[in-house]
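Protocol step 4 of 5: obtain the predicted structure for the target chain.
Materials: sequence only (see below). No template structures provided, no constraints applied. The aim of this step is simply to have a reference model before the mutagenesis design in step 5. Sequence pasted as it appears in the construct record:
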Amino acid sequence: MSLLRLIALAAAAGCSSSSDQLANAPAVDSTVAPVAAVLSTDTTDTSDTSAASETAATAPDSLRVPILVYHNIQPASEAGAVRGADLTMRPEVFAAQMQYLKDHKIPVVSFGALLDALEGKGSVSPGAVVITFDDGRVNQYHNAFPLLKKLGFPATFFPFTHAMDKNPRYFTWAQLQEMQSAGMSVGSHTSLHVRVDKMKDPKQMHAEVTGSRTLLGDKLGAAATELFSYPFGALATAGDSAVRASGYRAARAYGGGTWNSWGNRWRLRSVPMTENMSRFQQIVNPDGVSARKAAAP
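Step 4 output (structure tokens):
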């Protein structure tokens, strides 16, 4: 089996620690629920990520700006679809979530704007969210990017660079350049999509963390060298140190909640997204969002 095939299989397992594997999903009912029905859908995922439920200690200067994490945006029946509640979302459900943000006037800000606010160099509107995508699957380009551009929502894409221009299921450099030109941002997800917490060789870790950053900079410019996303959400002190030493501005972990501060910028908390719309509404609706919508002209 080729190295690239092994990489693709690893990435297909997603960035969570689940055992979900690359597989063709079984056939599903061809009758797709309309957007209105999707908005009222409640699945079995009962994860509580409300501000009140988060038990992790937060710094006095923390901000509640949920960093939403998406992976595959594709029909579950599509060849190569990845199983897992937090790994694959139907395009119509993603569209419903984005439309919900638009309809409820929930500000979508760039990752950079959030970092500026955490550092005290700027501010973000109350109730803002950040949208991110992991792995660099081409379905994100086809099924998410056009809608984001239409709605004027910025987002950050974290591809692992070794698959670029080599595997048709992943981005090409031309696609990334197009998205970047349209206002999207790009960050690193390592070169081979590896768990940095399992790496014993400092040179290999440096190659994964720094090599991908260097390549992104060569292809896309300095703007693509600021952000890092840990594959599989794997955290390790050595990994943190490698990310810091490589020149990144910040790194996003996988899960953990909705509150962040400048002090935890190397392990920024985030929220893995699923098709559970009740959970989605809870995550993006801090106190006052309904009042803000009612007061808007």
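Step 4 remarks: The longest helix spans residues 202-220. Residues 58 and 71 are 27 Å apart (CA to CA).
Proceed to step 5.
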